[in-house]
Amino acid sequence: MEQDVPSRVVHVEIHGQQYPIRSGLDPAYVAELAAYVDQKMRAASRETSAGDSLKIAVLAALNIADECFKVQADERQRRDSITSRAEELERMVDLALGLDHSEAAAR
Hints:
Blueprint: E1 8-14, E2 17-23, H1 27-47, H2 53-96, H3 101-106
Antiparallel strand pairs: 1-2
């Protein structure tokens, strides 16, 4: 977090509990994050018989981490695909210009 951004306390509710969150982020964004975590915790509590809030929080965190990892893998795959396509386009341009591969690599 940047030091010149003033922090403020945003009060949010997650899984029936009130939390004061000190943050320099936009309060509406903090509320959106809290609502997302609340949704995940409620979903986790519906899918398990564990009534323990800590266990529900861990299950919710695992679900959020899974989503995060999947997004990262998708982004990595897109980046690799773009890189591959760019290299193929470069090869095609080099061929069209009559450059051989060793000349193009020397550039």
